[in-house]
Amino acid sequence: MFDSLKDKLQDVFSSLGKRGALRESDVDAALREVRLALLDADVALPVVKTFITNVREKAIGADVLKSVRPDQQVIKIVNDALTEVLGGDAVPLNIAVNPPAVILMAGLQGSGKTTTAGKLAMRLRSRDRKKVMLASLDVTRPAAREQLRILGEQAEVGVLPEADRESPAQIAKRALQAAKLQAYDVLILDTAGRVTIDEGLMAELREIKALTNPHEVLLVADAMTGQDAVTTATAFNEAVDITGIVLTRLDGDARGGAALSMREITGCPIKLVGVGEKQDALEEFDPARMAGRILDMGDVVALVEKAAENIEAEEAERLAKRMAKGQFDMNDFLSQLRQLQKMGGLGGIMGMLPGLGKMQKQIAAAGIDDSMIRRQEAIILSMTKKERVAVGVLNASRRKRIAAGSGTSVQEVNRVVKQYQEMAKMMKKLGGKSGAAMMKAMMGGGMPGGMGGLGGGMPGGMPGGTPGGMNSGGAPGGMPGGMPGGLPKGFPGGLPGGLPGLGGKPSGKKK
Amino acid sequence: MSWLKKLTSGLSKTSSRVTSSLSSLLGRSSIDAASLEDLEDALISADLGTTAAAAIAARVKSHKFDGDITAQALALALSDGLTERLESVAKQLEIDSAHQPHVVLLVGVNGSGKTTTAGKLAQQWRQEGKSVMLAAGDTFRAAAIDQLKVWGERTGTEVIAGEQGGDAAALAYQALERAKSQNTDVLIIDTAGRLQNRTELMDELAKVVRVIRKLDDSAPHDSVIVLDGTVGQNALAQVSAFQQVADVSGIIVTKLDGTAKGGVVIALADTFGLPVHAVGVGEGVDDLQPFEARDFANALAGVEQPEA
User: Fold this and answer.
1) Which of the residues in chain B have pLDDT under 50?
2) Per-residue confidence in pLDDT tens, chain A, 511 aa
3) Which residues contact A65 (CB under 8 A, 6 or more apart)?
4) Cβ distance of A257 and B49 shorter than 8 Å
5) Cis, peptide link before residue B220, omega less than 30° from 0
6) Which of residues 89-128 of B touch A (CB under 8 A)?
7) CA distance B138 to chain A (A)
8) B42 to chain A nearest CA, in Å?
9) A42: contact with B, CB 8 A cutoff
10) Across the interface, do B150 and A251 touch by the CB < 8 Å criterion?
11) Which of A16, A466, B145, B284 could staple A472 via S-S, CB 3.0–4.6 A?
12) Using the beta-carbon criterion (under 8 Å), do A144 and B143 form an inter-chain contact?
């Protein structure tokens, strides 16, 4: 469904020029897709409309970063706006009051109030060292009070004993009295689930609120809620002025658009999220993560951000053109090494791409790390301009000088030269039409496009690669500078598109 | 209060909004592009999802209105479009007396209303004079067993229960054994709520199904997913996942006495074509009612109902 937002946006922008300011027509086309995406994520329609209007204002005329394509720029703007709407900093529970701090839980049936009350009690006791009492005002659902009692026992907190034939208001009064007398820090009141149009039950909730004067009124809502999120949030907010939202079942796979709806409608922060069945599965809300989830762009946004910061599109294109002609000198090699470093080094890039944990270990095992890249850089920097363009002139004495200048050894210099030569050889092979097409695929509209290619290139490129094989490594979209030299067996040949070749350990088998 | 009234009273706020948000369409003789979008939006607001909303809006657009479009005419056209899609899936749960017992398995995510639905189903079949047994297969949630026991008392139904934290599959097996030996007509197995992406919990459910098939390879005769009426598009993922694990054969939608429109039922009908057996419209023991395509469509579309 929505996983294709990226593709859709790419389609929208594919016919457009590469950079400049975002034009109105482009933005509208892109936002149509964003709108559908948000609706598919269950963000409520009125909220989507407001959101799109705001984003549109921000996006039109916004400069497209030098190295980023318009579709990526739009994703970034949308993502930032989403994060902002979802709330900046975490708002803690207001319990630093004259005890007992009263927390009232409200919500629809089955939203997870009782479970959340238990989790919250657990959290306040163990993390905040509070003396907590739970009281159930749910006289409607069979065994609801029993459920809260068991949860309270598990959380090792106080539970108000049940009494027969009491109204919720009476229980609330008794609970408050008990919490005061027994010097509890926090009193959590669990209430019965109710539909918002049940005036009687909503009046009861208002009465409980008036009686207990709670410091926090938390609306507990299911992350899977659909468009009704608006009605629910509005009704509860109007009835009892909620102070915060707890979003439950975030461990499910719902995209959780309700979070955005409720936040926007009530203006109340999302204070906590339920993320599992265990009693400690209650966490603070992370707006950036939630935005990513609603947009479902995974780490693409992070990748774009990094790319946007660091990669010079011109440089990438210049490289692409040269490679297309089969030209590749030490300067190009250096430039690739630097781009790699700017991306956060190997570790950084691997970390951003899903499913590469294993490979990271292999890389570490092979002794390929960022310090090696830095040494290679130093070696090239110790070369003269002439040497960098015409590697052939590097005789023994020049190599000694370079080794001394870079604080490395002649062997290491030799390795870099050899590595460079193999890459240059391949560049030549790739020269001409196919090479140009390949570079284009790799680089897209500049380096960040290559980043998109990174993701795409991995699955196809990796398994097909031959260990240590740079001639065969790099399936289409894969990478020219594979990993020459002997790498550990089973190390997939060919890093994702656009990465420079990395020095392997010397010996090793060669093709 | 009839279920239709309950459903309509819940939907009244929203259905009046459906029509009121469509004022751009009224008084015209046909629907243009801009008002078509309004129509789509109104349907999306009812949780139909973007795909089903677009399809139904297109269907209404092609409708030939006699003269200018009125609110009622529009609602009727809308209702027609919805009914068309729902008629084939409106199908009550039927107990096949050839099965002794007829096993009904209730599955779904947490908080969707499985235990309450189990109680209501028991009531319904007890009233029809059938012998019913309840199995408290939710051994995870605190007090879920007690909750079902209360329903057992209310409806005069035997409840087979074990310990909290016990093996749900073993309990289901025991219950089926017992129901067989007592020639019970219907065995309703309640299960713990589980999110469909939790593989280990879904495997547990698969085990329940596997184990009861050891006693009766045709069981469960109905595997019903219980969906919360307020759920959004995630319902599709839920049905799909539970279908794989527990061969879901039908749907019950709960909590339609609120403001939720349950429009996702249309998207579900389009996608899966599974029967929708009943809707839950309240907490009372009789508040589970057969799903009627036309009534549901009328309520959703906001067709003015003559006072019954």
Assistant:
1) 1, 15-16, 308
2) 334 455 666 666 665 555 567 778 878 888 888 898 899 889 999 999 999 999 998 888 777 666 566 777 787 888 889 888 898 667 889 999 999 999 999 999 999 999 999 999 999 999 999 999 999 999 988 899 999 999 999 999 999 999 888 999 999 999 999 999 999 999 999 999 988 778 888 999 999 999 999 999 999 999 999 999 999 999 999 999 999 999 999 999 888 999 999 999 999 999 999 998 899 999 989 888 888 888 876 545 555 555 555 555 556 667 777 777 777 888 888 887 777 776 666 655 555 554 454 555 665 665 566 778 888 889 999 999 889 988 889 999 999 999 999 999 999 999 999 888 888 887 777 665 454 444 444 443 333 333 333 333 333 333 333 333 333 333 333 333 333 333 333 333 333 333 444 443 444 343 3
3) A73, A308
4) no
5) yes
6) 109-113
7) 13
8) 9
9) yes
10) no
11) A466
12) yes
The pLDDT assigned to A479 comes to 38
| CATH tag, B102-292 | 3.40.50.300
Q: What are the tens digits of pLDDT across the range B88-98?
A: 999 999 999 99
**How far is residue B143's CA from residue A62's CA, in Å, rounded to a whole number?**
56
d(CA B191, CA B208) in angstroms, rounded, equals 9
In chain A, domain spans: 2-86, 101-225+234-286, 311-464
The SS3 assignment for A325 reads coil
What ranges in A164-220 are assigned the alpha helix state H?
168-181, 199-212
CB B105 within 8 A of CB B246: yes
C-alpha distance from residue B228 to each of B13, B145, B244, B280 (Å): 19, 21, 20, 9
CA A444 to each of CA A76, A156, A473, B180, B272: distance values in angstroms, whole numbers, following the listed order? 18, 58, 20, 67, 39
CB count, 10 Å around CB of B240?
Answer: 14
Which residues of chain B have a CB within 8 Å of the CB of A40?
A: 49-50, 233
Q: Which residue of A has its CA nearest to B235?
A: A224
Q: Where are the domains of chain B?
A: 3-89, 102-292
Write out the CATH class of domain B3-89: mainly alpha
Which among A280, A256, A259, A261 is positioned nearest to A271, based on CA atoms?
A259
Residue B33 exposed, middle or buried by CB count within 10 Å (0-12, 13-18, 19+): exposed
Q: Does residue A140 sit at the B interface (CB-CB below 8 Å)?
A: yes
Cα–Cα distance for residue pair B142/B123, rounded to 1 Å: 24
Q: Model confidence over B184-206: pLDDT tens digits?
A: 999 999 999 999 999 999 999 99
What is the DSSP-derived secondary structure letter of residue A156? T
Among A164, A158, A161, residue whose Cα is nearest residue A188: A158
Q: In terms of CA atoms, which chain B residue is nearest residue A195?
A: B258
A185 in contact with B at a CB cutoff of 8 Å? no
Q: With both helix axes pointing from N to C terminus, report the angle between A287-295 and A257-266 in degrees, rounded to the nearest 10.
A: 130
List phi, psi (to 5°) of A308: -60, -40
**Test mutation, A162, A190, A195, chain B, max B CBs within 10 A:** A195
CATH number attached to the domain at A2-86:
1.20.120.140
CATH number for the region A311-464 comes to: 1.10.260.30
List pLDDT tens digits, range B44-91.
Answer: 988 999 999 999 999 998 888 888 888 888 889 999 999 999 999 999
* Domain A101-225+234-286 homologous superfamily, CATH: P-loop containing nucleotide triphosphate hydrolases (3.40.50.300)
